Amino acid sequence: MTARNFAFLTRLADAAGTVILPHFRSALAADNKAGHGAYDPVTVADRGAEQTIRAMIAAAFPEDGIYGEEFGIERADADHVWIIDPIDGTRAFLAGLPLWGVLVGLVSHGKPTLGMMAQPYTGELFVGDGGSAHFHKDGSTHTLHSRKGRPLSEALMMSTSPRLFKASTGDLEAFERVAGAARDVRFGGDCYAYAMVAAGNVDIVVEAGLQPYDIAGLVPIIEGAGGVVTTWDGGPAHNGGRIVAAGSPELHAEALKLLVA
């Protein structure tokens, strides 16, 4: 990763944190953008952070496209499109749990080339470009390496919620096949779980129903750390859908066999 890219992502992370942190662990109200019968919260922190990130990208790269969760897409046909989730894990944010993050990804000519996951409350920044990945905190930077050599029977697996998987589509049964073969399964984490795959603390994440802004910024980090992230059928992950991220190609392949069995 070039110093220029790292510097820009750091500026985005710092600016987003300035907007978000005054609202964290406050008496913050949320709107439900899902409508009646469902729940998808959004707050002034989500909206304010995305507006700030969009403005900074537009100023630095005026020809690039921008796709954000809260304000949609501009210049969708651009060669380079920035994909933003200002607070991935808004439910955790509202609960006062630091298991949320600011996600920014860059897709160039249809391929994820740059990604960032920032956790402003803990001061952590995870970045990657598909070839390498790094963790930054308190002025120090460390190279990220995903964990290798663990079969599924020894793996720590994570997913945000079992509610992601529908029994009617067979997704719940597929998830339970993988979860049943893993040594341990933990729920919660949202984007933070994927960062932990890159960091070598978690072995595998399995989820469904993701949007592009939920995953595009994480793909270059996981791949840069030596991990593998695809859809359940082995396709590109950056467009969302049913996602599996693993610390090693061998573990990823083992999980895919169970997911499509």
From TrEMBL:
EC class name: hydrolase
Keywords: Hydrolase, Magnesium, Metal-binding
Cofactors that this protein relies on: Mg(2+)
GO biological-process terms attached to the record: inositol metabolic process; L-histidine biosynthetic process; signal transduction
Keyword Magnesium assigned: yes
A molecular function (GO) term: inositol monophosphate 1-phosphatase activity
Keyword presence, Hydrolase: yes
Superkingdom of the source species: Bacteria
Enzyme Commission designation: 3.1.3.15
Residues at which Mg(2+) binds: E69, D85, I87, D88, D214
Family, similarity comment: Belongs to the inositol monophosphatase superfamily.
PANTHER family: INOSITOL MONOPHOSPHATASE, INOSITOL-1-MONOPHOSPHATASE-RELATED
Protein name per the record: Histidinol-phosphatase
Species of the source: Segnochrobactrum spirostomi
Protein's gene: hisN
